[in-house]
Amino acid sequence: MDKAVKIKSFGHQCILLQWEAIKPSEIHETQTFIENKYAEEALDIVPTYQEIAIYLHENIDKQKIILQLKEHLSANNPKSEVTNTPIYHIPVCYEKEMGIDLERLANSKNISCEQLIQIHTSAVYTVHFLGFLPGFPYLSGLNELLYEPRLKTPRAKVLAGSVGIAGKQCGIYPQDSPGGWNIIGRTPLKLFDINQSPPALLKSVKRIQFFQINKEKYNEIKSSCLLNKYQIEVSYD
Prior knowledge:
Elements: E1 5-9, E2 14-19, H1 24-37, E3 42-47, E4 51-56, H2 62-75, E5 87-93, H3 102-108, H4 113-122, E6 125-130, E7 137-140, E8 155-158, E9 162-166, E10 169-172, E11 177-179, E12 182-186, E13 207-213, H5 215-226, E14 233-235
Parallel strand pairs: 5-13
Antiparallel strand pairs: 1-2, 2-4, 3-4, 5-14, 6-7, 6-13, 7-10, 8-11, 9-10, 9-12
């Protein structure tokens, strides 16, 4: 087994896998294996940047699962990068009233707003995990030119759908919420809906790419989403 991965018992009926460094492809491949192999045994599977926690049902032999996981990681060599997986295309309106920090951020980078949008939409992002709010995706893949610290003073309210940057991360607010990320645009998609199954639009392992829309298209897509008629475009490498 890769010595960079530790597998241990973590409280009652929980197993924790820990990586010494952030290895997205290896962690995602392992997560997919766990989801497929232990769909009935696992009550919940919770990934982060460097860990996966597996919460098991009461009647499951935890030590047996730990041994199986060690055998799997010993026998498998995870791919160095994720390819041939779907890319979900997320519409974003970057107009000033929705991208309230876009102009300031562009000025701080000595680039135009158009250049910032082009850089932001050209990258493919990976959802590492959901946190902070139900359905809030933490995304890697941000171009380092766009790295920016959180706001010194968080806003009392950030609108649902707002696309933000904080440090090396990109994220999307699924509900209205206080927040300190730099907001560069807004998507009309609903990221979390308790009436849907699953309720979260995105999940860890998924890859996404943003594309620019104007305000008119934003309103059109938002109306379609309210009627559950909007279909997200999907492409492959």
